[in-house]
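step=encode ok
step=design start
structure_in=
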């Protein structure tokens, strides 16, 4: 803990990958990060976790060493955290755990950084084909790219979790803050999603419901960013999506839908 040297963050990332993918990590197990600060390299990938709890009781700070960030063979950067095919997974904290994406270097110089890296930046938390997932009592801070993306999930509850992405501390979204672009809040696709009692301050869609989604409820959320969105949609049907008791303080937009070109239209 506490050391942010390149050697330490690489070793911490390697150790976490080994732990999450160890065959002895069994249903009912609990992995606890104690109340200390841990600096890690991204590219954390966990496959097929079943009935496991991860408790972030301290602080996780992702490396901002862009040069040594792990990449795929096509030079695409890997996500900070990626969970594939998890079942009954719980991410929680005994208090309010902090996961800091350390996104400033990824955003780069206002007005220039996006031209350099565009969207080749890591999502802070990504979930693919997971079921019965619970995320609670966390702060997700300064993601380099989308903060939270759950793709083709079936059964997701997010509660008492806050997203905070900003360049400055001003109480609005000015031209400087908005250059931390594509830092979406909660982006979801799938079925049976309930996100409630959360706060989001970011510089893109605060909540975005994407293709082929249904039966989702978002309630008692305070958001400020580009708003609450359905989309973008193309070639799929989105149905039974409810936004209820949402407060949009100084948001740049409000509630809106987005569609994109495709061979088939999208329906809401």
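sequence_out=
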């Amino acid at each position: 803990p506490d050391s942010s040297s390149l050697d330490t963050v690489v070793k911490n990332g390697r150790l976490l990958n080994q732990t999450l993918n160890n065959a002895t990590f069994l249903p009912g197990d609990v992995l606890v990060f104690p109340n200390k600060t841990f600096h890690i390299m991204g590219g954390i990938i966990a496959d097929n976790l079943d009935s496991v709890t991860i408790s972030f009781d301290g602080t996780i700070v992702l490396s901002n060493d862009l040069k040594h960030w792990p990449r795929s063979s096509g030079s695409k950067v890997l996500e900070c955290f990626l969970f594939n095919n998890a079942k009954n997974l719980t991410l929680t904290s005994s208090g309010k755990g902090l996961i800091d994406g350390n996104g400033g270097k990824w955003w780069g110089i206002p007005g220039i950084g996006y031209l350099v890296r565009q969207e080749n930046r890591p999502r802070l938390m990504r979930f693919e084909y997971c079921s019965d997932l619970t995320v609670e009592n966390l702060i997700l801070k300064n993601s380099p790219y989308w903060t939270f993306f759950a793709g083709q999930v079936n059964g997701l509850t997010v509660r008492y979790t806050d997203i905070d992405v900003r360049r400055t501390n001003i109480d609005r979204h000015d031209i400087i803050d908005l250059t931390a672009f594509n830092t979406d809040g909660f982006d979801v696709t799938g079925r049976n999603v309930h996100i409630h009692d959360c706060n989001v301050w970011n510089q893109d869609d605060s909540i975005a419901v994407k293709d082929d989604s249904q039966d989702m409820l978002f309630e008692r959320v305070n958001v400020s960013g580009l708003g609450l969105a359905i989309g973008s949609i193309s070639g799929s049907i989105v149905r039974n999506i409810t936004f209820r008791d949402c407060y949009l303080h100084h948001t740049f937009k409000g509630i809106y839908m987005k569609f994109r070109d495709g061979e088939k239209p999208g329906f809401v």
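step=design ok
step=annotate ok -> The radius of gyration is 18 Å.
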